[in-house]
Amino acid sequence: MDWSLLITQLLNGLQLGLLLFLLASGLTLIFGIMDFINLSHGSFYMIGAYFCGTVVAITGSFFIGVVFGLVGIFIVGAAVEWFIARRLYRSDHLDHVLVTFGLILIFDTLVHLLWGAQGMAIPLPDMLNGQIRIGELVLPTYRMLIIGCGLGVAALLYVLVVRTRLGMLIRAGASNRTMVEALGININRLFLVVFALGAAMAGFAGMLIAPITEASIGMGNDIIIVAFVVVIVGGIGSVKGAFYAALILGMMDTLSRSYLDVVLGWFMPVTYAETAAPALSAMLIYILMAAVLAFRPQGLFPPAGAK
Amino acid sequence: MKAWLPQTWSGRIYALLLLSLALAPFVLDWMKQPFYLDLLTRALIFAIAVISLNLILGYGGMVSLGHAAYIGIGAYCVGIPSYYDYYNGWLHLALALGVGGGFALITGAISLRTKGVYFIMITMAFSQMAFFLFVSMEEYGADDGLVIYSRSEFPQWISLDSAFGLYYWIFAVLLLALFFIHRLVHAHFGRVIVGSKFNEERMMALGFNTYRYRLACYVLSAMLCSVAGMLLGNFAGFISPDMMSWARSGELIFMVIIGGVGTLFGPLIGTMVFVLLEEILSAITVYWHLIFGIMLVALVLYGKGGIHGWLSLLDRGGGGRG
Amino acid sequence: MAEPLLTVNSLYKHFGGIVATDNVNLAVEQGGIHAVIGPNGAGKTTLIAQLSGQLRPDSGEIEFAGHSIVDYSVARRAREGLARSFQITSVVMPLTLLENVMLAVQGTGGHSFRFWAPVKNDRAMRDAALASLAEVGLDDRAERIAGQVSHGEQRQLEVAMALAMKPRMLLLDEPMAGMGKEETARMIEILGGLRGDKTILLVEHDMDAVFSLADQLSVMVDGHVIATDTVAAIRDNDAVQKAYLGDSHA
């Protein structure tokens, strides 16, 4: 077995898992606290990447691009909450699906209008473009940075949710909304902050991945579905659940694409295994989600005290 | 006043719509506009799919974000046999009904254990599963899709080869579907479905095993949608997994909403408007999705009831005895 | 003494640390009106939920007409003849009163996998529904939309739906909830008319209603049944006076 390949794949899985976590943590809070389905959460991922890329093109600094991108996407998120989402918290889920589906169309076209149909490459500073060598292992510096950033945000979010007053309200809101309202909290402001924060985290994920993949129209529309799977598997409203589920799904997806044919080969003729493996590995996360919904609908790690 | 004439303005408009659809091929032929006949044919096929979605979503309150999967399944039930030179239409139809219904039975049995958001997400997940299954099938073109070189054959019965013939057979299926849904929702079965939408707890307390009725409804809807998929495969001659992506499912819901949820003719008129607008707007500007997006947001925030809702206002406003 | 139609043995239900029903025993006689009273939070609604199948007890036995129904679903119990009404009005609001009651007739009348013939043409079902509406005095309002009639009429509709199921027993969860004086009197009259014909388990706060209707009375406090007896005997029961009636008579 090729150990350095395995380690690379594990790191790829970790990277995917952490990106998913950045998307899913905001999604799960918006879902859990406001009971709002935001299909257009993936648009924040895309817009974040474009904001960042534009600032990088002007200033030449990736770091400044990220800072301005975060501020910009926070404002976009707040605006979506203020003008649209807020009016829909009390309507049924069908309305959420429709409106946020409409928002995807709007955001995708606006990006097309402003930046054109071509993708946008985001150059990295030389410092991040290199590689790290550990013995025989060669690891791209930037991928390690993504992993570091992902873990860093996860830690920050943990501190925010567990240690601060805002975090206490968020936790209370995710498990029992009426209680928070009964406490006389300005619920509108809480919703606004949570929504914008979620948008910023999604945007951050977009900024991190864009130097590798380019920013492109609709880049968030596939990964957001996987983020929804993460939310359901982890348990709606649970940041901790989103973290574990994102890592599990990221690893599962990455590893099954590389190794499922080998594993299946133990049980069936190799030719069958090679045909079945790509199909099965593409479906695996959805199979897991269906299994979770069928047998443990509250998710694997539901928020404490949730019904 | 003659009893068989529609008594309301909305009724008259729907009757006029059906009449225009019945005459359209001749008019378009006379005007030498074969392109618009193609457009209408495609609209009718989607209307059948949207009618099937409206059965579960509109009448049954089951919001599925994965209904496009059945269009894809129906289409591949034409594409894959044709790939092996099996062109028998009865085989295609039987496969579409069988595979579509079977997939719906298995996935529906799991999905309907859940409610609300979870149902939306799990139906979406299952359609993604189907999507990726076809994407990974290299033999059948993977994401590049599959060309169908010859249409389904129904020897001694029907020929789908002419544009006219295909249009009228599809129109006939559409009328059948409308009639079938009309009977269904007013029959015992339909009352249980509608009652469960508004108050499932009460329906269970009245002795209904609502799960079974909803599952049956879900399967029926999927089978009808698979037939639409089979027709689409025949019409388009080219099929790909993209037909069943979740964005397509979102569009189907959009079409239901434009027309009016839980109404008989809403899905038909909603689909017509959607397909025509798509055609007109995309000819004017490449940014037509923006207009669609704004329409969708505005429709939910301000335009409750869709086109059927607006036409019903006409009925109340005067004219007719509705 | 008549055979009990419904017997409840040692019913336990806990939610975390909270005891909802604690060793509840009940026997409801055939044809009688048995009322359950008690202060808020005594476990009455949880008891109804367990009898109707909405909640599963942690332990205990529920026998109906001679056999255990503890493992039956809500729908199955309804078809066995145990009909319930809801504390918070639960009817299908967008449908007419007649359509609501027809659903109730339909629910207990065999399966509904009938896809073609319009319900409207089902004369037998329609007549049965109209008869139930007449029993509660709503037959003249049959075509009105349920969401648009008064609260009192919706409560009457609840009872009509329960009756339309041709049940052997009715579980009525606060049928007078939120009613005015006149509406309450009307409901007492309707329920009184069912005496002897239907077995009724009545959970109710309105003491006038309970005292004028019930043959047997059980008093629940903190998940326990502290006494079961005739109305007269309960009135004179010191423990009950102290635990419960004391408040309202003070």
Architecture overview:
The complex is a heterotrimer of chains A (307), B (322) and C (250). Chain A has 307 residues and is mostly helical. Chain A has helices at 3-34, 41-59, 62-83, 93-115, 126-129, 141-163, 165-175, 177-182, 187-213, 220-234, 239-265, 270-295, and strands at 131-134, 137-140. Chain A has one domain (12-295): Orthogonal Bundle (ABC transporter involved in vitamin B12 uptake, BtuC). In chain A, helix 1 packs across helix 7, helix 10 crosses helix 11 and helix 11 runs antiparallel to helix 12 (270-295). With 322 residues, chain B is an all-alpha fold. Chain B has a domain at 39-243. Helices cover 73% and strands 1% of the residues of chain B. Chain B is built from 13 helices and two strands, in the order αααααβααααβαααα. Chain B is globular, with a radius of gyration of 20 Å. Chain C is of the alpha/beta class and 250 residues long. Chain C folds into two domains: 1-81 and 169-250, 3-Layer(aba) Sandwich (Rossmann fold); 94-166, no CATH class. The longest helix of chain C has 14 residues, at 151-164. At the A-B interface, helix 4, helix 10 and helix 12 of A face helix 4, helix 5, helix 10 and helix 12 of B.
